[in-house]
Amino acid sequence: MGRKSVKSQIKQQRMKEEKKQLAASTAAVKKANALEDPLADFPVFNSYNKNGLVVRLICARVKDLMPEVVQWILDLMKRNMESVYNQCEWGWNGEKKEEEMTEDAAWYLVAFSSEGNQPVAFSHFRFDIDFGFEVLYVYELQIEPEHQRKGLGKFMAQVLELMAFKNNMRKVVLTVLKHNKAALDFYHSLKYVIDETCPEDNFEEQFCYLILSKTNKNFKPPAAVEK
């Protein structure tokens, strides 16, 4: 049998490098998910006290949250987003959303009021592989209506970024519905941009959402893992 072509050799080398990169990214995500508390490295960000709002923050897996807190999370999600989902082809599917939000991989950043110790805001996020790379994916960031526009959302978004970049995630990624102008304005104000993985509308298909991201400027590619 003759020698492999140069093109074939280049292709095989590229595939080998991609396999190593994916293994390294997977190891980084696994390490982040093994943390007991991703917020532990940032004690200064355990509380928020501005604009008449005083809260404390915790970070935990969904399985470690009290059942009543999980129920509140599901309830707030429905109250804040059901009508928004129903304005596009996605529609609202409560059972599907509950299943997604209670999967074992789900992490939560939850804010509790200092008075009465009631939950007032949450973010559902995950350390995950997205298109082959390690990311912190923000699934939701929801705040009780009476506590909105007090800076808490921006604060929690910054905490999510800190946890992502501390654990050497390549970027923070999230999905926003195109008609949700308030959410789009919010993330654009935080310097999120359209991600390279965001699908583009075309003649055959139009998409009701955008994928936004913020890159970790200090990202250090993890050491390749041989498989």
UniProtKB/TrEMBL annotation:
<dbReference type="Pfam" id="PF00583">
    <property type="entry name" value="Acetyltransf_1"/>
</dbReference>
<dbReference type="InterPro" id="IPR000182">
    <property type="entry name" value="GNAT_dom"/>
</dbReference>
<keyword id="KW-0012">Acyltransferase</keyword>
<protein>
    <recommendedName>
        <fullName>N-alpha-acetyltransferase 40</fullName>
        <ecNumber>2.3.1.257</ecNumber>
    </recommendedName>
</protein>
<dbReference type="GO" id="GO:0043998">
    <property type="term" value="F:histone H2A acetyltransferase activity"/>
</dbReference>
<keyword id="KW-0963">Cytoplasm</keyword>
<dbReference type="InterPro" id="IPR039949">
    <property type="entry name" value="NAA40"/>
</dbReference>
<keyword id="KW-0808">Transferase</keyword>
<keyword id="KW-0449">Lipoprotein</keyword>
<comment type="similarity">
    <text>Belongs to the acetyltransferase family. NAA40 subfamily.</text>
</comment>
<keyword id="KW-0539">Nucleus</keyword>
<dbReference type="GO" id="GO:0005634">
    <property type="term" value="C:nucleus"/>
</dbReference>
<dbReference type="InterPro" id="IPR016181">
    <property type="entry name" value="Acyl_CoA_acyltransferase"/>
</dbReference>
<dbReference type="GO" id="GO:0010485">
    <property type="term" value="F:histone H4 acetyltransferase activity"/>
</dbReference>
<keyword id="KW-0519">Myristate</keyword>
<dbReference type="GO" id="GO:1990189">
    <property type="term" value="F:protein N-terminal-serine acetyltransferase activity"/>
</dbReference>
<dbReference type="GO" id="GO:0005737">
    <property type="term" value="C:cytoplasm"/>
</dbReference>
